[in-house]
Amino acid sequence: MPPRTVEPGPIAILPTSHDGFAEAVERAGGTVQPLGSDTRGIIWLSAARSDELAAALDAHPQIAWVQLPWAGVDGFAELLPRYADGSGPVFTSAKGAYSEPVAEHAVALAHALLREFAPKARAARWADARTGRSLYGLRVTIVGAGGIAREILRLLAPWRTETTVVRRTAHPLEGADRTVTVDELDGVLPDTDVLILAAASTTSTRHLIDARRLALLPDEAVLVNIARGALVDTDALVDALASGSLLGAGLDVTDPEPLPGGHPLFAEHRCLITSHSADTAEMTAPLLAGRITENVRGFLGGTGFVGIVDPAEGY
């Protein structure tokens, strides 16, 4: 349930307007107007600039709903705790909306790592031996149980993988062979061939995969991170790859991000870095527009929202 009663009304698109998203609001019967005293909803189209959003909310306490642009809301980590007590607007994100392209990217990285595309491409010569692993029948562990994890499970089905989902609760996730809690992660890692990170970035998940947990993975395992860079201890990952204790790592996200030029990971021949391109603007714009239309309908009709953010939990 929303933290408070939501009174519908005109919606402002900020920090700058966008015709495609204005059309998404109007398709649902909403009205787009400049921010003012009668504004009741905000579509916030910047992944950052949280200070500007905070200022807008301070100046307009009548705002009842804010739609944020991405699945992850760590860019608003300083703003959201102000409303952890349930006061203020309902915040919604795009979580779940971008599942298909991001899950597709995760599986593509897993294939590329197992088949050792990165070292083979960088070698620039005919290899002395044929190497690589097939995904068929491997043990895949997915950390996270949101829309991306669900879509990854669906995509993995043809490869008959043995799948384990790691989440906050042990409530079984449909499509997974096994669901365990984060407390059980250490026991799962030694039997993991492909580790895919698809969890939110919070204080509790920072460096979830550190040197100790990387050491628990088999030497032939691969790591895929399409969530947030902070889930992995970057220095520990550099050491693990350099020592050969991992077959490879596929990183769409890094910590820091962007990764500075000359960073050791760029030179690591078994690391694939895709510069946060799992969901490009071209891919996400129609998906975000669909989420906006859906939530405007809920906003106006009182039927509820999709992708509600818990300001206390940070996702």
From TrEMBL:
InterPro entries reported in the protein's UniProt record: D-isomer_2-hydroxyacid_DH, D-isomer_DH_NAD-bd, NAD(P)-bd_dom_sf
A GO molecular function held by the record: hydroxypyruvate reductase [NAD(P)H] activity
A Pfam family assignment: 2-Hacid_dh_C
UniProt-listed Gene3D superfamilies: NAD(P)-binding Rossmann-like Domain (3.40.50.720)
Domain (D-isomer specific 2-hydroxyacid dehydrogenase NAD-binding) ranges: 114-278
Database matches in PANTHER family: 2-HYDROXYACID DEHYDROGENASE YGL185C-RELATED, 2-HYDROXYACID DEHYDROGENASE-RELATED
Name used for this protein in its record: Phosphoglycerate dehydrogenase-like enzyme
Organism name: Microcella putealis
